[in-house]
Amino acid sequence: GRLAAELTDVGPADVVVHIGCGAGNAVRAAARRGARATGVDPSAAMLRMARAVTRRRNAVTWVEGSAESLPLPDGSATVVWALATVHHWRDVGAALAEIRRVLAPSGRILALEKQTQPGATGRASHGWTAQQAESFAALCRSTGMVEVEVKSTHAGRRAVWAVGGRLPS
């Protein structure tokens, strides 16, 4: 969560939506930086766990939903995160259309995925090859996002792809 918060420069003016939030670590990281944050996950059990371990409840909301169907109002988010979850999305195009819908003008998107090698199988394939990262960036551009960049970076010792961009103002 800290890497995502740094890469998107999250602060008190932000409303962060984390798609596929799991136990909510990154949602809490956003709240610690003063942002209001919503964790979205398809798993009610994960959301129960996230609620149970969250102390600062006033800045955080948990909702059941998927990337393709975000239960949030139009233009309500300034930042949307997908951290190691895009490879699980059923329909990336539909998910990006939903992200675009919930993002306010100038809103930022960040997707982080573990770097994987072409031809990897099993758990080693959970993530993106360089080509998959570039393909996701191209899809972001095709939905009207600007300043879309693909960066190679590290989350701890793990090499990750960071794809970020924003909506025009």
Query: How does the helix and strand content classify structurally?
Result: alpha/beta
Radius of gyration: 15 Å
Give the SSE order as H and E letters.
HEHEHEEHEHEE
**Contiguous helical run count:** 5
Strand residue content: 25-35%
Helical content, roughly?
25-40%
Main pleated sheet: 7 strands, mixed
Overall geometry comes to: globular
Unreliable spans: none
Overall average pLDDT: 94
In total, how many beta strands?
Answer: 7
Strand order of the largest sheet: 3-2-1-4-5-7-6
**How widely separated are the two ends?**
26 Å
Write the layout of secondary structure elements.
Elements lengths: L1 H6 L7 E5 L5 H8 L3 E6 L2 H9 L7 E5 L12 E7 L8 H11 E12 L15 H13 L3 E10 L2 E9 L3
Parallel strand pairs: 1-2, 1-4, 2-3, 4-5
Antiparallel strand pairs: 5-7, 6-7
Quickly describe the structure.
This protein is 28% helix and 32% strand. The protein has five helices and seven strands, in the order H-E-H-E-H-E-E-H-E-H-E-E.
Description:
The protein has 169 residues and is α/β, with parallel strands linked by helices. Helices cover 28% and strands 32% of the residues. It is built from 5 helices and 7 strands. The protein has helices spanning 2-7, 25-32, 44-52, 92-102, 130-142, and strands at 15-19, 36-41, 60-64, 77-83, 103-114, 146-155, 158-166. Strands 3-2-1-4-5-7-6 form a 7-stranded mixed β-sheet, with helices on both faces. Strand 1, helix 2 (25-32) and strand 2 form a beta-alpha-beta unit. 41% of the residues are buried. The mean pLDDT is 94.
